[in-house]
Amino acid sequence: MKLDINTETCTGCKLCETVCIRDNIQSIEKKAVEVDNGDCFDCGHCLAICPTGSISLKAYEDQKERVEEYNPREIPINSEDLLQFLKQRRSIRWFKKKKVDKETFDKLFEATYYSPSAQNAQDVEFVVLDEKLDDFMHLVYDIIKVEEDEFFRIKQFGEYLRGEGDYKNHPLLWEGTQMILSFSKSQANALIANTRLELLAYTMGLGGFYSLFTLKADELDHERLMEFFPEIDSDKHMYSAFIIGYPRVKYRRTVPHKKIDVHFK
Prior knowledge:
The protein is α+β, with helices and mostly antiparallel strands.
């Protein structure tokens, strides 16, 4: 059984039964009853909708303090403010020398704690690279250099690491000195979680950009890449590499984009 149901406070309103997509709850004699059909995957919809707080998840007994009450009729940000915020978001490659500290990272990962995932897998793991960022980037180049004839940026990356040429900035990191990597068995899970983190970061005066060339290391030699991360399940893939820091420049206006095609059928 996956649920703790307080039958004394349960009013038999059937809301939990209505939102359970696995038919794991039924209302019997005006009380919610768990049907142990083996399909419950701890999504928590029943817990979240119960008007009397009569349901809890046994799997998260140690996380009860994370359950927060809120008014479902109040959205904490209006649509126009959110849209304006999204319009102002830009990729940041120019950073101050100030580092992001542990306390700030902890707050950023609060955004990923509540991120949705397919089948409620909650399988996204993160690595914050700081002191070992240089070692990691050398490994990345050693893997992706097989494509430097195809991509000039990879060629520049190698020249920079070897001290060749006159490069003012790192060809992949630019002025960045810290990177967040996300790992998951699902690309969607990883990207949704990191996007939530990224947007929260902008509200905290931080910025960053995604490095697609860094991701090539996983595409070209996943097993070798994962040797750098023995603490991560090797069945998971690196699906985002986000360089983060405090911007030293501020942009003043939006930039035109290609028209978005939307098809209604």
